[in-house]
Design goal:
12 strands, Spore Coat Polysaccharide Biosynthesis Protein SpsA, Chain A, alpha/beta, three-stranded antiparallel sheet, about 375 residues
């Protein structure tokens, strides 16, 4: 095969990748509604909201108060803490005392059903829930007043689970904007694109379950079949012949200030978990960096005879168009943006290939302060972790 033919193949491939990235932005723009556009009526059924907590975070008071301020007529809150000495316990008790009208329980203890500390913390809450609709919600989700309505409105006849991607907000400083660039106009929009293609997958920040449905599959213990509970949830739901569906107005996770080290730790953990649980889907993730198709198109043009300056300008044009589309998506949906966002997007796209490569060649992750190694589950083994 001649150099010219190789250049043409490279050019066609990376043009297709660039178009695919733009199509995913268009899907998210169509699928996601700006918050406040729709008003939903409460569902008639009561709901249990299980919230695993560990430690005090920057927005703990605000997220706790939001959970007690939901505009839903019949819901209970179940807070789960593994350690009685955790500093979040007094704060939860105080907030419960200030909101006597909401049925609330604080459960303390660690039920070891897996090597996933979050799932262990949730188990007692799932078992104690009184209602058939159960939400597993991370403690750092800033719940809007219509939080439950939006989850329930996402349920369809074919649903096995409804969840929401986390949308980064309240970002302080450049690195927090980089985290927004990862969460919002990259990971969230690809999650909506996957749902639209029939390959919806779970995100553990907010998960609405129909309790009898999951109990028939082994209850919350079924989510211990994979390293991360959201990966297990995806496979359990697909095993039912059902689908993971998403809310049309995703919920905010307030970020505050972030550092490069924190972003690297989170992204490498998530990437290694995805690589272990869904290797075939993880493999093309490197192409989600707009920098990769931009460089690929530039190389392809140079290989087919374009001069270097024109090739460079074409690559820069792909970056400019993609970042403009991402910025318009974020602005249209009311997600946090800034004049610094193009630099945050470029920084993210430089990091994506580095994280992708590190995910293939490393096994260590840090999860809730616990260092672990990840591997694929071997046949007949109980645990996907090597401590």
């Amino acid at each position: 095969m001649t150099e010219l033919a190789i250049g043409e193949i490279v050019l066609i491939f990376f043009k297709a990748v660039a178009v695919l990235n733009l199509c995913s932005i268009a899907v998210a723009a169509f699928r996601v509604r700006r918050r406040g556009v729709t008003a939903l009526q409460p569902h008639p059924d009561p709901v249990s909201v299980v919230i695993p907590c560990r430690g005090i975070e920057a927005f703990s008071i605000e997220t706790l108060n939001a959970a007690f301020a939901l505009d839903y007529p019949a819901y209970e809150l179940i807070f789960c803490v593994a350690d009685a000495e955790d500093p979040i316990v007094p704060l939860i008790r105080r907030t419960i005392g200030e909101s006597p009208g909401i049925p609330t329980r604080l459960l303390i203890g660690d039920d070891h059903i897996s090597d996933n500390p979050k799932l262990n913390n949730c188990a007692k809450g799932w078992n104690a829930a009184r209602h058939d609709w159960v939400v597993l919600a991370d403690s750092n989700v800033l719940m809007p007043r219509d939080y439950i309505q939006h989850l329930l409105s996402g349920w369809r006849q074919t649903s096995g689970l409804v969840c929401s991607p986390p949308i980064g907000g309240r970002a302080t400083g450049f690195w927090a904007l980089v985290e927004c660039a990862f969460l919002n106009t990259l990971q969230a929009r690809w999650q909506y694109a996957a749902e639209a293609s029939g390959l919806g997958f779970a995100q553990g920040k907010s998960m609405l379950w129909r309790r009898p449905m999951l109990n028939a599959e082994g209850a919350i213990g079924a989510l211990a079949r994979e390293i991360a509970e959201d990966a297990a949830a995806t496979k359990v739901v697909r095993g039912m012949g059902r689908h993971v569906h998403l809310v049309d107005q995703p919920f905010v996770q307030p970020l505050g200030r972030r550092s490069l080290a924190e972003i690297w730790s989170r992204q490498i953990r998530w990437a290694r978990l995805r690589r272990v649980t869904f290797a075939l889907y993880f493999a093309p993730e490197i192409l989600s960096s707009a920098l990769v198709p931009a460089l690929g198109v530039g190389f392809g043009l140079a290989a087919v005879g374009f001069n270097p300056a024109a090739s460079l300008l074409a690559g820069m044009g792909i970056l400019a168009v993609t970042y403009a589309a991402e910025s318009m998506l974020g602005a249209a949906k009311g997600w946090q943006t800034s004049w610094w966002m193009p630099f945050a997007l470029l920084t993210r796209d430089v990091l994506i290939p580095v994280v992708w490569i590190a995910a293939w060649f490393g096994v260590k992750v840090v999860w809730q302060g616990q260092a672990m190694k990840v591997r694929r589950r071997a046949e007949g083994t109980e645990s996907p972790f090597l401590a």
